[in-house]
């Protein structure tokens, strides 16, 4: 994890008079969020990352019509594209053509383009929702630990240490391996997706939790908290009105940076065969099938590239967000 | 409440912060930030509270406003003992007692607009206003010399002096009786300190306020105070009317502080040599026994290390805690006689 974000916003306070002068007669003040947004708009790299993220989200949401328009159903076999002798795609470059944009898989001839697009949906869904789970757990526990301190902080702090020291992948593999076929009114891969979201989210909360705790700890000492207390504010008011608004920026930044980590996590589990079960297409699952056909580079490259671009785009955007909220982090 | 009953009365108030060590938080000592102080504040007056950094001024302010709970002693506000009152029972009393904070950069939430900050007291205390909170807030902004148009601005768009005015506006919202101002100008440029002090004075006249103004040197509180208390290492060493204190300071420490105050009159300046204190302020973790000032006092005798001088009244409300006070009226020592003569 990178250097913790400073929430003091003092960078924006450097030249109060000039800001005021620049604002002229404008009655509406410029919030720190708006100033950060103005900075973000000048950061071309972050904007490019953000653009790719938006594109990926659109692809994931509209995966069904996109596949209908440009490909074939992701589970459909196309034995006619396969050379029965070698079981490899007939055409050159892995069978790439106008019909099969990214070629076909060996053995059964499934459309790689469609499977990548369908995989985007599962990757992003799990990446986002697992992050939501960890942000909720991390924020609640981090704020409680930082605000109340004392033994509460001790207990939660130890809990974070335990989670951070855990051989996470091994444990997740074990846990994901024993997911039943049905439960909680769900079955098959629906249940597996839900379980993966909770497993990944549950194990990645301490990174957010630590940041939130540290920030809360320093916010609690700020005089505006004392000011609220001396006005008779209750804990709830102080937490929700004084502390949380100052935590939104760091939470947003680190959530953005956690999404790619969680996407990689899901890909790893699917790669290892304990994530989403085949034949449902996932990037990790495709990669794991592809390694058996290392003579066919396109089969490895496209899912690999999909993961790479997604992770990179989220990271670039997240870094840009952090810089926009805290330009001194350089 | 009768006329001469104090608005605030502090009796033998103590605050010891425990110092813990190791895994099991064993207490190994205590920072005696405030170590048994007593004073009274009367309606309409301004009490200056002066002392070097770390002597417990802020802790005193935070005890009186009950942001902290005293380890011992009593705090009586408007006749009610609030020393250990629960936060719930304190809530209604908090309307009458507000605090201005030292750091105008830390005392305003950067995520809130000026309107939200100054309007917070109404919201927290559930106070209804005649023409709505916005109107009330804008009136207060005008009162402290800001424009009502600043309502939707954010704190980072203001200078230090303007921010401190926003902080002052917030304390005025509920029309308090007592305001504790913790070094209200020490974070500000010297050029705007006077403006803010003048504002505090004007507001006092207009709104019938009572102040405790904390400062780390005697010059800041000189014009605003009616009485001044001098603190050293968690104790009050001298307390007197402003006039008395500035013209005839008794405690050696007050004299030392006084000699650091710039004097405009060159004639007086020549007559008065600057007293340089030796050494640093000792740690409040382990304060010197008996008179705490004896490690730095040029008048210290054996008795000063053995017997703690009580804060005793000398003349007309002038209290001092010293075995050998300067400018003492009765039984003048050779030294003090030479000085006054
Ligand atoms: N919460 C706390 N825990 C432990 N020690 C504290 C705490 N608050 C203050 N102290 C200590 O108590 C002593 C008095 O602190 P205080 O802030 O009251 O001083 P001050 O006179 O206001 O100084 P300054 O002029 O620097 O504001 C200091 O030694 C300080 O380190
Ligand atoms: S009691 Fe003694 S040491 Fe203390 S201030 Fe007076 S003369 Fe100095
Ligand atoms: Mg202080």
Automatic annotation (TrEMBL), chain A:
Which protein are we looking at?
Peptide ABC transporter permease
Q: What is its main location?
A: membrane
InterPro entries reported for this sequence:
BP-dependent_transpt_permease, MetI-like, MetI-like_sf, OppC_N
Parts of the chain that traverse the membrane: 45-70, 120-147, 159-179, 191-212, 251-276, 296-318
Residues forming the ABC transmembrane type-1 domain are 120-318
Organism of derivation: Nonomuraea aridisoli
Where it sits in the cell: the answer is:
Cell membrane
Similarity comment: family membership: Belongs to the binding-protein-dependent transport system permease family.
Q: Which UniProt keywords apply?
A: Cell membrane, Membrane, Transmembrane, Transmembrane helix, Transport
Membrane-topology annotation of the record: Multi-pass membrane protein
Extent of the signal sequence: none
């Amino acid at each position: 994890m990178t250097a913790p974000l400073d929430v003091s916003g003092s960078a924006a306070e450097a030249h109060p008079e000039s800001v005021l002068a620049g604002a002229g007669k404008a009655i509406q003040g410029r919030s720190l969020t708006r100033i950060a947004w103005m900075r973000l708009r000048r950061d071309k790299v972050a904007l490019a990352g953000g653009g790719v993220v938006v594109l990926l989200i659109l692809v994931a949401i509209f995966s069904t019509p996109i596949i209908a328009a440009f490909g074939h159903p992701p589970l459909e076999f196309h034995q006619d594209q396969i050379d029965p002798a070698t079981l490899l795609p007939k055409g050159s470059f892995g069978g790439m053509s106008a019909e099969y944009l990214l070629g076909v898989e060996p053995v059964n001839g499934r459309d790689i383009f469609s499977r990548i697009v369908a995989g985007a949906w599962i990757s992003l869904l799990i990446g986002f929702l697992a992050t939501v789970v960890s942000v909720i757990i991390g924020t609640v526990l981090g704020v409680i630990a930082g605000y109340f301190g004392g033994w509460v902080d001790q207990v939660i702090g130890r809990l974070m240490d335990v989670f951070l020291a855990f051989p996470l992948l091994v444990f997740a593999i074990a846990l994901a391996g024993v997911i039943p076929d049905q439960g909680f009114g769900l079955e098959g891969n629906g249940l597996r997706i839900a379980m993966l979201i909770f497993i990944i989210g549950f194990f990645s909360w301490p990174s957010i939790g630590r940041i939130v705790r540290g920030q809360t700890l320093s916010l609690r000492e700020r005089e505006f908290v004392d000011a609220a207390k001396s006005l008779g504010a209750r804990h709830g008011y102080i937490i929700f009105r004084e502390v949380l608004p100052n935590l939104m920026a760091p939470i947003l930044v680190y959530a953005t940076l956690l999404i790619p980590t969680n996407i990689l996590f899901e890909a790893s589990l699917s790669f290892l065969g304990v994530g989403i079960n085949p034949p449902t297409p996932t990037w990790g699952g495709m990669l794991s099938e592809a390694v058996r056909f290392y003579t066919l580079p396109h089969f490895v490259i496209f899912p690999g590239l999909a993961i790479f671009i997604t992770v990179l785009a989220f990271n670039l955007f997240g870094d840009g967000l952090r810089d926009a909220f805290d330009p001194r982090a350089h | 409440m009768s006329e001469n009953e104090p608005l605030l009365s502090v009796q033998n108030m103590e605050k010891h912060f425990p110092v813990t060590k190791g895994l099991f938080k064993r207490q190994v000592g205590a920072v005696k930030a405030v170590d048994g102080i007593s004073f009274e504040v009367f309606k309409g007056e301004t009490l200056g509270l002066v002392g070097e950094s770390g002597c417990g001024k802020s802790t005193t302010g935070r005890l009186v406003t009950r942001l902290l709970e005293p380890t011992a002693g009593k705090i009586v506000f408007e006749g009610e003992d609030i020393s250990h009152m629960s936060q719930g029972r304190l809530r209604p009393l908090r309307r009458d007692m507000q605090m201005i904070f030292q750091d105008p950069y830390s005392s305003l939430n950067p995520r809130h607009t000026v309107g939200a900050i100054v309007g917070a007291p109404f919201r927290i205390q559930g106070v209804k206003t005649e023409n709505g909170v916005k109107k009330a807030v804008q009136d207060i902004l005008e009162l402290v010399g800001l424009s009502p148009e600043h309502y939707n601005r954010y704190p980072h768009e203001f200078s230090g002096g303007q921010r401190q005015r926003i902080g002052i506006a917030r304390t005025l919202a509920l029309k308090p009786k007592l305001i504790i101002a913790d070094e209200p100008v020490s974070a500000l440029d010297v050029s705007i300190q006077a403006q803010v002090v003048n504002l505090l004075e004007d507001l006092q006249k207009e709104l019938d306020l009572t102040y405790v103004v904390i400062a780390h040197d005697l010059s800041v509180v000189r014009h605003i105070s009616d009485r001044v208390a001098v603190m050293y290492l968690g104790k009050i060493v001298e307390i007197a009317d402003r006039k008395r204190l500035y013209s005839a300071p008794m405690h050696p420490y007050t004299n030392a502080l006084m000699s650091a105050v710039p004097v405009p009159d060159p004639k007086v300046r020549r007559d008065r040599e600057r007293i340089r204190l030796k050494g640093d302020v000792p740690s409040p973790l382990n304060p010197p026994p008996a008179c705490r000032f004896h490690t730095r006092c040029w008048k210290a005798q054996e008795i000063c290390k053995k017997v703690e001088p009580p804060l005793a009244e000398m003349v007309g409300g002038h209290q001092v805690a010293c075995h050998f006070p300067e400018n003492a009226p009765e039984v003048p020592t050779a030294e003090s006689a030479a000085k006054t003569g």
